[in-house]
Amino acid sequence: MSDRIHSIDTLRAVAIFFIVIAHVQPFRGFGTYGNHVYFVLDTIGQFDVPFFFLTSGYFFAETVNIDTVKSSVSNSVKKLGSIYLFGRIISITAVVGLALFRGVPVANALIARGIGSISAIDLLYYGTALAVPLWFLTALIFSLVFLGCFVKFRKTRYLLPIAVLVHLVGLVGTNYQMIADVPFRTRDALFFGFFYVALGYHISSVDWTPNENRRHIYLVAVCFLAGVQLLEQYAIGYVIRGNVLAQEIYSTEYTVSTIFFVLALFAYVLSNPEWGRDTILPKVGRHALGIYLLHVPVIRLLRTMNRVWNPAIGIDLTSTVLWQLAIVPLVYVLSLSLYLLLAEMHVIELGGSHTPWLSRILSRLRTSVQDSKEAPAHGRSLDETALQQRTEND
Q1: 3-class DSSP state for residue 377?
Q2: CA distances to 149, 161, 230, 256, 355 from 166, in Å
Q3: Distance linking the first and last C-alpha atoms of the chain
Q4: Average pLDDT value for residue range 284-294
Q5: Among 39, 215, 232, 337, which one has the highest count of C-beta atoms within 10 angstroms of its own C-beta?
Q6: Does residue 131 carry a pLDDT above 50?
Q7: Which residues contact 318 (CB under 8 A, 6 or more apart)?
């Protein structure tokens, strides 16, 4: 697809805003109804990560086939891998920088963030080491690899049924433990990301194009299913488990209604491709991943600044309504601005590698190695020529 779908970019901008809400947690524990406000915002916004997986599978299907699957998967892994590495570097840099800002020993700060207990599986598969939000990238990488295997071996007819089955296991392990106890983590590639990537691939491969005349119906379905998701997650967290919303937040994850909620949203944006075109949102949505990578360090910076400045100004800013209202937009804008600044400084390439400097270093190393191999060979050639000349003179 040569032309961008403006509505998808618009919804990306909206989705990343809800991801920021989930990590900033505005109004949580703030006054009598603070938890109610946060619960509604967080629950409605849980379409966010599934939507990114879905669109990844949808666009991946347009470029991959049996002949190109190896190169397509390889290119995706390289690009996402560079982004993941960049995210790791940002995470460590943020920990070190904030430790210096607070006057805390860097080693203690790194240990507090769990650097001493990092396992290979957490770092390479679950992606939760040091910075939990980076799990999305590793999950997407492995999901695309799983999908590529189905394409490579011509088994795509089994793709969605198998993805549904493993996702059901993930649903039980995440929010429906009363049905069965799943003794492993399920917010990962296999049990979560794979399903939504496979669903996006399936929608694209069957060439499903929602009718523009029905977009109002899809919008009604979106609103209805948002209400269903609120009811389902309230039931899971507070009715079944007996928690009280006014007193605490029970953190739920993806649920059954999330599947249909995301599908309705995707149907709406496909049926209304020009939605948001005349706003800034599509442009922001194209850089949603940058906001995703930087918003957690920005959150930590703002919270650290508040703690450091609190004694001087005599007030905890987090206790004010202004902070609760402004913190999410502020983090959103600062993260986007910092990401674009890094692009202007050529630290990253928008839409490309996020570690171009690493590629340059590797290229120079390969050139140096190649030169070092050629030099002895050249030297031997000169020696042999000289020997031959001496022999002839003799």
Answers
A1: helix
A2: 16, 9, 24, 13, 34
A3: 74
A4: 95
A5: 39
A6: yes
A7: 303, 306, 324
Q: Is the predicted pLDDT of residue 356 greater than 90, yes or no?
A: no
Tell me the C-alpha distance between 197 and 141, whole Å.
10
Nearest to 295 by CA among 325, 329, 320: 329
Q: For residues 198 and 143, give the distance between their C-alpha atoms in angstroms, rounded to a whole number.
A: 8
- The CA-based angle 80-175-269, given to 5 degrees, is 50
Q: What DSSP designation does 5 have?
A: -
Is the Cα torsion angle 341, 73, 185, 19 positive or negative in sign?
Answer: positive
| Amino acid making up residue 81 | G
Average pLDDT over residues 47-71: 94
Tokens of 1: 């697809």
Q: Where are the domains of the chain?
A: 6-354, 356-394
Q: What is the DSSP letter of 28?
A: T
pLDDT of residue 132: 66
Place of tokens 């600062």: 334
Give how far the C-alpha of residue 385 lies from the chain's centroid of Cα atoms, to the nearest Å: 60
Asked if 142 and 189 touch (Cβ cutoff 8 Å), the reply is yes
Note the pLDDT tens digit of each residue in 230-243.
999 999 999 998 89
For the stretch 363-384, pLDDT in tens is 777 777 777 777 654 544 434 4
